[in-house]
Amino acid sequence: MQKSRLGWALALVAFGLLGLVWIAFSKQPANSLSADSNLTEAAIAGYLAPQFTLKNTFGQEVSLADYRGRPVVLNFWASWCPPCRAEIPHFQDASTKYNGQAVVLGVDQGEPLSVVGDFGAAFGVTYPLLLDSDNSVSRDYGVVALPKTVFIDSDGVIRELFTGIVNRAVLQDRIEKLLSEG
Amino acid sequence: MFPSLNIGGLVLPTAGLVYILGAWLVLSVIERAANALDLDAESTYGLAAISLAASFIGARILFVIFHWSAFQQNLIGIVWPLTSGYHFGGGLFFGALAGILYGRAKQLPLSATLDALAPGLLVASIVVSLADFLGGPGYGIETSIPWGIDVFGIQRHPVQFYEIVIALAGLLVWWWGFKHRRQEGQMFLMTLIIYATGRLIVDAFRANSPLTESGYHIVQIGALSVVLVSGYLLSRMMTQSDEHEVAELS
User: Does A44 touch chain B (CB under 8 A)?
Assistant: First the structure.
């Protein structure tokens, strides 16, 4: 019996040592978010957010790259979409609360400037509403249903994508996580 | 990767569908395992179902508590939408608590019940890996190995498939343990050791694994701890069993 116990003990110690060596061997550079240094653009969490330049409701061009260094919340919406309308106040509140620290961008899917502008004014939206007139950005982000919200960190990497309404708490939670990661 | 399924005008998230089908499969597997182990299959199934429901509700409740300021002016938000907003620790705690309370109320034997739950947990891990592959954020590090998969133009380790292989290996070990079982709880510990060993190895190939401040993989540290604790418990169980057999023979 002593032999059997000794055998088990030796096996566990050997496994523990091998495990520690493997963990040390697999170690990544300190403070690295990912083992990947060659990220490509893709509408999937962990990848670089596809770049775009769109016009806002004032006719100015806005690029995603302009906001590198700050977390970005990208909300795809349309005025005819009831769930989108329901969550607009949450985005407006978040935009006000995190003004200067994080950015909220609303990307309207294929509607004319007049509709988007009137909608923004009626709902008191102060964050940029961008016009994806030919739906090219929506295609790049794989938007097949509205609303869709994409959380992008300060390095331009997509951290999460949500299809459907994002409630106020989730929005706040995700933005604060992104801000805390700096 | 197929994050959503388009049926006519209907868009369904594939990960969600996989989870719904997976929950049914997990419960069925547990029921069959309980039958095979001559346990009260109905109660074991009930334990798994109640734990699952409690973890879902508990994860939501804790998330709501931690974010109450955001919910207090929008009470409907507590129950809708449910697609996001869960606390992992809360789910784990309430799921385990409900399982323990239900198991005690039904007087289910702990070790034998864990043996019956083990294949269900392995199937659950297959479901999570599959959902992760179809629409989730997990992906492997770059590689040039022939079985690497093309993910948006870059050849990567198919980590989710590695995880599925680990779980299948765990199921095989469970089956072997079932044929050669000597002690209750043995199959649970054996499958736990196989699964945790697999995660210890495979997590090294994950590109976006959670890391400590110094860059160590958190999952690997947890997996090694699980292997060592389970190995110790299994060693005690097996040596006691050997001693008992020797005592009986003499």
Answer: yes
